[in-house]
Amino acid sequence: MKKILSLCLASFALIACSSSQNKSKTSANADVYAKTITQSELKEMLYTYASDEFEGRATGEPGQKKAIEFIKDHYVANGIPSPIADGDYFQDIPASYFKKGVKASENVLAYIKGSEKPDEIIVISAHLDHIGVSGNGDINNGADDDGSGTVAIMEIAEAFKKAADKGFGPKRSILFLHVTAEEIGLYGSKYYADVDPVFPLANTVANLNIDMIGRVDPKHEGNENYLYLIGADKLSKELHDISEAVNKEHTKIDFDYTYNDENDPNRFYYRSDHYNFAKNNIPVIFYFNGTHADYHKPSDTPDKIRYDLLETRARLVFYTAWELANRENRLKLD
């Protein structure tokens, strides 16, 4: 009996050790590829994306068309395919879907197919549009809003692709979703969720939404290593716990949950693209640096972005997506 007990204990220890080693190996792999997300690459992309050439990226306008081509070219160059069709990265949204006077526009979609659970989807989103040109001719470049989120997704996607190319692809599929028309009413994400979900919403595990992560708001000028998180515990306490654990292990950002309060008068939980997933019972996290003096002004320019903070915050989203994509069980809904 003692011999059997000893064998059982030895087997249990071996399994536990193996599990620990696998987790450690997975974490180590995440570290390798997170480091490929760099402030120099983020800066290079954002100086183009938030330049005058893109004319403020107003929905349906020529500058927004340049923006979607820029995003598409990045995915093509890095060999990251579209889930729509070979070479077709644009989810077309007709003018009739928008309010009167807005021209047809497009979401941009790219993805990496999961190796073990390809039908389960992690969505990483950011809006590609901004408010365009002011009446006096000033261009609203929207470097923080939401150029910062846009280039962050592009770098995150590149990191996942490098991992996949080395045999460490995600177990679940990851959709990189750049939505249009956020500034005029969350139309792009609403179209994806309500009209044409390329992947069934029932198979969508979580949405990590990035909207402004390149600046520091007045409240945190004495503590710049922060980020507002909104929504993580609304539908899944487990998502909140995973988010906290990932940050503690890897990025050590001070999370501020002020805007997560049900009674917060700003109601940011309802004001960005994650909400169109949350309303469908999909757990979400909204990453946000808060508003600042340049919000929705021509002065929201790429020279004012804190690229060191943008790098760390983008890595946080990468690590969180990595954990959600590779963990054994799907997130639990409360």
Automatic annotation (TrEMBL):
How far does the signal peptide extend, from start to end residue? 1-22
What is the name attached to this protein's record? Answer: M28 family metallopeptidase
Q: Where is the Peptidase M28 domain?
A: 107-319
- Source organism of this protein record: Algibacter miyuki
CDD domains for the chain: M28_like_PA (cd05660)
At the highest ranks, the source species' classification is: Bacteria, Pseudomonadati, Bacteroidota, Flavobacteriia, Flavobacteriales
Q: Which UniProt keywords apply?
A: Signal
Q: What InterPro entries does the entry give?
A: EF_Hand_1_Ca_BS, M28_fam, Peptidase_M28
| TM spans (from-to) | none
Whether Signal counts among this entry's keywords is yes
